[in-house]
Structures are given as structure tokens and as C-alpha cells.
Amino acid sequence: QVQLVESGGGLVQAGGSLRLSCAASGRTFSSYAMGWFRQAPGKEREFVAGISGGGGRTDYADSVKGRFTISRGNAKNAVYLQMNMLKPEDTADYYCAVDDSFRGLTVVGTLDREYEYWGQGTQVTVSS
Questions:
Q1: In the chain, how many H helices and how many E strands?
Q2: Most exposed: 34, 65, 83, 99, by fewest CB within 10 Å?
Q3: Which tens digit of pLDDT belongs to each residue from 90-111?
């Protein structure tokens, strides 16, 4: 059974940093793209960042470029999101996801329908 578990969320002041982690189990996802999405209260879920299966390609939402960095663990079954210079508008539930297709070896999907497995989410609150 595939399971994704996020951690690292919390409350932080604007300008601060958080590092989110996502551990995948049940299968090996080293060849598959992994991504982070977020959903703020009353808003649609949106793409934040993604990384290809090989780790050679990353993609970011314009709103987080230059502030967030996605990376994979050595065993590639983990993905991290380093979030710096956080803003109140970054407040949301953050979700880890896996693109269960071979496309993800080299391509990073930015639509949530391109990802098959999802974690339960971790809450990030940025105070002003």
C-alpha cells in the first residue's frame, strides 16, 4: 500500500523558513516525478514545485521562485521543500504527490490530475 507522509509544517513569522519533508513507502518512486501542491482556505489546490524522477529537472510556481527549493532524498523515496522568505500568502495546507507514470522521469507535471498518489497534508501558517 502506497503511503505518503508529510511533516515539517508549523507556524512561522513572515520572513522565516520551514523545511517540509515527504516520505513515500509501499513502492520505490526513484524514477517518478514528485511534487508539492498547496491549498489555502477557500481556494483551489495549486502547484508549488515538482522534481523529475531523475532529479534533473525542477519546476516552480512563479509565486515561489527564488524562495522555495525542492529536492529529493538520496534514496529518492523522499522529497523535501525548503521554504525561505515566507510570506503570509504562503499560508496553506501543503501536500506531497507522486506522478505514477514514466513521463515523470524527465517531465514535471504542474496539474494535480497528473499525480496519482497524495499525502494527507501538513499545515503551514505564516504570520505577518
A1: 0, 11
A2: 65
A3: 999 999 999 998 888 888 999 9
Rg (CA), the chain: 13
Q: With left for phi above 0 and alpha for psi between -120 and 50, is residue 48 left, alpha or beta?
A: alpha
| Cell digits of residue 81 | 521543500
Strand pairing of 10-13 and 122-127?
A: parallel
* Long-range interactions of 25-31: CB distance < 8 A, separation 24+: 25/77, 26/1, 26/2, 27/2, 28/76, 28/77, 29/53, 29/76, 29/77, 29/98, 30/75, 30/76, 30/77, 31/102, 31/104, 31/105
- Cα distance between residue 52 and residue 73, in whole Å: 13
